[in-house]
Amino acid sequence: MSAPRTADRFARQVALSGFGRAGQDRLAAARAVVVGAGGLGSALLPVLVASGIGTVVVVDGDVVEVTNLHRQTLHGGRDLGTAKAASAVAALEMLAPAGTTLLAEPRFVDETSVGALIAGADVVVDATDSLETRYLLDAATDAAAVPLVWGSATGTTGQVGVCLPGSPRWRDLFPARPADDDVVTCAVGGVLPTLCTTIGGLMATEVLKVLTGLGRPLAGRLLVVDALAPSVREIAFGAADPTEPMQEEPHMAENEDVDVQEVAALLERRETVQLVDVREPWEADIASLPGAKLIPLGSLQDRIGELDPDVPVITYCHHGMRSADAADRLAAAGFDARSMAGGIDRWSRRVDDTVPRY
User: Fold this and answer.
1) Which of 178, 260, 336, 350 qualifies as a cystine partner to 182, CB 3.0-4.6 A?
2) What does the pLDDT read at residue 190?
3) Which long-range CB contacts under 8 A does 13-19 form with residues at least 24 apart?
């Protein structure tokens, strides 16, 4: 059997309404700089390369470690100790169409290198788990008027967002860098490998939309994915008001969360409130708050009748994503419901350190 013609390789995406040959030509002329060749990079980089993006630059100063291999599928056992950028490019060469340029940049992004790394890019992708890198890339791409696609995956929840020239930025979502003890890394909280696949795929979709003009990018909107529920929710946010004090919590157009100290004070005063744990039973077996009613998020709709609509509800989960979703659902059903920000993990760190962390 003869090899397929190059012109046929992209037939299925060229056939998409609104994509066409013009969209494919835009991809072929584009330069994408992807920072991070780990779990998210392993999911999105093969898609970007196979789709026909002309130049893909892989930036990562880390080396492959054995704990990476369960989710960072661009790398294998033989790559241990190898620079991730080089290992990723070697794997991607098998997928690259004729005419694609793959470049490895085995270094970390810092204030001295960020400008040169994004120079000439048509889109920059932040697939790291570094807040320092994200703030740097947000500022640099804003100054250079280059779109930024970013994502995160920790534990069982992930987020995806896009910053376009003139749109709300990452720093509008988090105007002040969160405290170090509020940042849950994969090393501490673990990560579900399939979450990386999901979030990386969503990020790749946003990159293709940005480069081809297809659809509506996630600018000014945060997509939150909870793999355990499962649920996907979209949160709109705007530019932060520079006259207001910096906030550690996201500047989101949603019901206000309640702080863990406020919840502790409510419980200590024995005020009438329904405390609802929307995690899974196995999580509640590890750690839970006294008096809480366990209703996993996936069961909430069927069990909403167990709650008194005349009594305020406070929902909580592990880190606050599922509980925010639950509070929104309850509010839509007529309840006075709020989510406990930071979840039981923050409770353990700021209220009662005898509550186990996981």
Assistant:
1) 178
2) 72
3) 13/51, 16/214, 18/213, 18/214, 18/215, 19/212, 19/214
Of 153, 186, 276, 300, which residue is the catalytic one?
Answer: 186
Q: What is the pLDDT of residues 117-139, one digit of tens each?
A: 999 999 999 999 888 999 999 99
How does the average pLDDT of the chain come out, rounded? 88
Q: Please name which of 57, 205, 42, 170 lies closest in space to residue 120, comparing C-alpha atoms.
A: 57
Range name among 19-23, 266-270, 312-316 with the lowest pLDDT average: 266-270
Give every CB contact of residue 304 below 8 A, 6+ residues apart in sequence: 330, 333
E strands, the chain, are: 31-35, 55-59, 101-105, 123-126, 148-154, 157-163, 221-226, 231-236, 274-277, 293-294, 313-316, 337-339
Q: Which residues of 222-259 are buried (b: 16+ CB within 10 A; e: fewer)?
A: bbbbbbbbebebebebeebeeeeeeeebbbeebeebbb
Q: Give the 3-state secondary structure of residue 250.
A: coil
pTM: 0.72
* Residue 81 and residue 64 in contact, taking contact as beta carbons nearer than 8 Å: yes
pLDDT tens sequence across 186-196: 554 578 899 99
Closest CA to 288 of 274, 278, 273: 278
Of 33-47, 102-116, 260-274, give the lowest mean pLDDT range: 260-274
Which is the catalytic residue, given 48, 191, 224, 317?
Answer: 317
The three-state secondary structure class of 352 is coil
Is residue 347 classed as helix, strand or coil in its secondary structure? helix
Q: Is 196 tagged catalytic?
A: no
Tell me the H-state helices in 122-242: 131-144, 170-173, 186-189, 193-212
pLDDT of res. 118: 96
What's the angle, vertex CA 159, arms to CA 241 and CA 95, rounded to 5? 130
Three-state SS at 91: helix
Query: Is there a catalytic annotation at residue 317?
Result: yes
**Structural contact between residues 327 and 252, judged by C-beta atoms closer than 8 angstroms:** no
Q: Summarize the confidence of residues 83-88 as an average pLDDT.
A: 97
Q: Give the percent of the chain with pLDDT over 70.
A: 89
